[in-house]
Amino acid sequence: MILNRRKFIKNSIAVFSATTLTQNIFANEIFKKKLKIAIQLYSFGPNIMQGKFNLLDFPQFIKDNFGVKGAEYWSIPFMGKENDDSYLKTLKEKSIDANADNLLILVDDINIQTMKSGPSLASSVKSERDLAIDFHKKWVDVAKKIGCHSIRVNLKSEESNNKKILDNSSESILKLIDYSKNDKINIVIENHGGITADADWLVSLINNIDSKYVGTLPDFGDYNFCMKRGALDFEDIGKVCENQYDKYMGVEKLMPYAKGVSAKSHHFNEKGEETSTDFSRMLKIILNSNYKGYLTIEY
């Protein structure tokens, strides 16, 4: 699986890199839009938490092994180091040394020991929303210190009324933006299952917030567009979805608001090629949008 993952990353870079597509009909558009490749730290998260990979080496590692300068981060592998200014300064310095562009942080409030999630920005309980806002402010500070332009937030809720979820989420994100805008840090929402898997709802949320500091993070993953799922099956994360939003349509609807793009993958063939997403089709959707930024590979 590690070999297939490495093959996938290299194959994805080849697919999305204009330097290897000089004979491809998309090449001129890729050059014109200046689309670049990034890698998400999540792809190496288990190795970091097992002590097999040093987060501080990430910027240089992706440069040396994949020729990539775009670096996206995940909050969990920081494992408390987000509170250590010296550590964050070192990460920023190592990023500069590697000529890396630090882009965004995927923020998850999860207790690794219990796998229990913390308070949500979309909670129907105001006190929980306030706690979630304070939690995310810390990651806005981290983003500033290491040079990222955005943090990704989650919007989980047990509320059955979608309008109430939208109102609660809007209120929380606007308060968070009031804090983050001073440092020009964006708040981005990924289609991450549940209510956010509904691209129409997510677009309504973005329009309701109506701020240049909010945006989307379109994600290719099947699970990411699952609006309702059955019992979780880690052996096949996609098969238990009971209400799947069409991911090609979803990405197309989210692209006008995108501040990043996640080329997430789960299933590979023996050549290391992703089998659940038509990457050529996704590339067409991206190129037909006004997006000019990084395409991030995530496994």
What does this structure look like?
The chain is 39% helix and 15% strand. By secondary structure, the protein is α/β, with parallel strands linked by helices. The protein has one domain (37-297): Alpha-Beta Barrel (TIM Barrel). It has an eight-stranded parallel beta sheet, covered by helices on one side. It has a two-stranded antiparallel sheet with strand order 7-8. α6 (126-146) crosses α7 (162-180) and α8 (199-209) packs parallel to α9. The radius of gyration is 18 Å and the shape is globular. The N and C termini lie close together (11 Å). Pfam families: AP_endonuc_2.
List the helices and strands and how they pair.
Elements: H1 2-16, H2 27-33, E1 36-40, H3 45-49, H4 58-66, E2 70-74, H5 85-97, E3 101-106, H6 126-146, E4 150-153, H7 162-180, E5 186-190, H8 199-209, E6 214-217, E7 226-229, E8 241-244, H9 247-254, E9 261-264, H10 279-287, E10 294-298
Parallel strand pairs: 1-2, 1-10, 2-3, 3-4, 4-5, 5-6, 9-10
Antiparallel strand pairs: 7-8
InterPro entries: IolE/XylAMocC-like (IPR050312), Xyl_isomerase-like_sf (IPR036237), Xyl_isomerase-like_TIM-brl (IPR013022)
Organism: marine metagenome
Protein name: Xylose isomerase-like TIM barrel domain-containing protein
In brief:
Pfam families: AP_endonuc_2. This is Xylose isomerase-like TIM barrel domain-containing protein. By secondary structure, the chain is α/β, with parallel strands linked by helices.
CATH class descriptor name = Alpha Beta
Please tell me the overall pLDDT: 88
CATH architecture level-2 label: Alpha-Beta Barrel
**CA(first)-CA(last) distance:** 11 Å
What is the H level of CATH, i.e. the homologous superfamily?
A: Divalent-metal-dependent TIM barrel enzymes
Largest sheet: 8 strands, parallel
How many domains is the backbone divided into?
1
Helix residue percentage: 25-40%
Globular, elongated, flat, extended or rod-shaped: what is the shape? globular
Radius of gyration: 18 Å
Structural class: alpha/beta
Quantity of strands, as a count: 10
Strand order of the largest sheet: 6-5-4-3-2-1-10-9
InterPro entries: IolE/XylAMocC-like, Xyl_isomerase-like_sf, Xyl_isomerase-like_TIM-brl
Domain Xylose isomerase-like TIM barrel: 71-299
Pfam families: AP_endonuc_2
Protein name: Xylose isomerase-like TIM barrel domain-containing protein
